[in-house]
Design brief:
The chain is an alpha+beta fold. It is built from eleven helices and 23 strands. It has an 18-stranded mixed β-sheet that branches. Strands 20-23-22 form a three-stranded mixed β-sheet. Helix 1 crosses helix 6. The longest helix is centred in the first third of the chain and has 20 residues. The protein is globular and about 70 Å long.
Length: 382
């Protein structure tokens, strides 16, 4: 289902497990009546509910003991806000039912699980690289272990467990780039009060002081901004293909794919600019997807879009190959799919960067008929 249909899918999950309320049931029925694709998807789920595998699974996991086993297996409940935990119990069961629909076999790990590759997986994950600050014209500074106030040219940089803050002793412009490598995340507070969170494999280029008329930064990868309001000095975020202009707002920019940046507005107002022209103005709750010199606007759920800030990435009926870039960014491993059918197989689940890679692989084998293998330092799925 499309990303904008998450609410419909949630209602399907509740319907599949018998936990839907009368009002929710009416909403689902109205959605199914007006959306042929959603109706077909629900018919597939209903068909699968009649299979022996699905019936046995649902019967087993309606008990508290079953729920505990399932949530332990998937390792996601304790990482979610309380308001979403019960939803994920529904989702976990329905995802397993849907797995039958798409031809994925559900089964528990064997007694040994994937332990035969555990040692190799541990060796596969490298030690994290350093978070670095690169002043233009100066030497790179390792921020990973620093807890101090540093002098970087005219900058006074404070580094501690919360991230990086800086001030300039003069009004002279000095550009610097903050680089966050794989397996890391970081926060920087800008002098105007703007806060920026950077995801793994991301960078932020920023000046030591903002000009009198505009505040400008450059970002690659993914970042979440809480921009301090200043009606006389707009804040502009530059990406390779698009600029985002704001006054004071909260938004997420995902530019891992330079030709397809996605801007998701949480609060306030932003203008998306391409080729020097304003192409789209977003309202809160809207995401602008830039591609082929045009912007497509869609609704998004901040709970899921911003989950990376808590170290979680969710997948909903996405091709299994879409886990590869996340594993690379969060674990620093190279991933390759040997089988096209496996790579394109729909997948619903999550990755928690705080959990060992081995745990994720154990869980993946438990819900999908795939086999991981390590060859020449690369994690292969077949």
């Amino acid at each position: 289902m499309a990303y904008t249909d998450l609410h419909i899918e949630e209602l399907m999950f509740k319907k599949a497990t018998g936990t839907i309320s009368p009002i929710e049931n009416e909403r689902l029925q109205a959605a199914l009546d007006g959306d042929p694709a959603a109706r077909r998807h629900w018919e597939e789920i209903q068909h699968s509910l009649g299979t022996p595998e699905a019936s046995a699974f649902l019967q087993e996991h309606t008990t508290d003991k079953g729920w505990n086993e399932l949530t332990t297996l998937l390792e996601r409940t304790n990482s979610l806000p309380k308001s979403r935990r019960k939803w994920w119990q529904y989702a976990a069961v329905a995802a397993a039912v849907i797995a039958v629909t798409i031809g994925v076999c559900y089964y528990r790990p064997s007694a040994n699980g994937l332990k035969y590759v555990a040692q190799d997986v541990q060796k596969l994950v490298p030690s994290p690289d350093s978070i670095r600050l690169l002043p233009e014209g100066g030497e790179a500074i390792n921020l990973s272990r620093a807890v101090a106030t540093l002098r970087v040219g005219d900058l006074s940089v404070t580094v501690d467990s919360t991230g990086l803050r800086y001030q300039s002793a003069t009004a002279n412009f000095q550009w610097a780039t903050l680089q966050v490598p794989a397996q890391q995340q970081y926060r920087i507070d800008l002098p105007d009060g703007t806060k920026v969170w950077l995801n793994a494999v991301s960078s932020l280029r920023f000046p030591s002081a903002f000009s009198a008329n505009i505040r400008e930064v450059y970002v690659s990868g993914e970042a979440y901004f809480e921009v301090a309001h200043d009606s006389e000095k707009p804040f502009v975020v530059h990406t390779e293909k698009q600029d985002i202009r704001v006054l004071g707002t909260s938004f997420n920019i995902n530019a891992y794919e330079p030709n397809r940046p996605v801007t998701a507005l949480v609060s306030g107002r932003v203008e998306l600019i391409a080729g020097g022209q304003v192409s789209t103005v977003l309202a809160p709750g809207e995401a602008g997807v830039f591609r082929d010199n045009r912007v497509t606007v869609q609704v998004f759920d901040p709970t899921f879009t911003l989950a990376w800030m808590e170290g979680i990435h969710y997948f909903y009926n996405a091709p299994l190959r879409s886990i590869a870039p996340i594993l690379s960014r969060w674990y620093g491993v190279d991933v390759h799919f040997d089988n096209i059918e496996v790579a394109t197989r729909p997948f619903s689940g999550s990755i928690d960067r705080h959990q060992p890679l081995q745990d994720f692989l154990d869980n993946l084998v438990a819900i999908a008929d795939i086999r991981p293998e390590i060859r020449n330092g690369v994690l292969h799925f077949r």
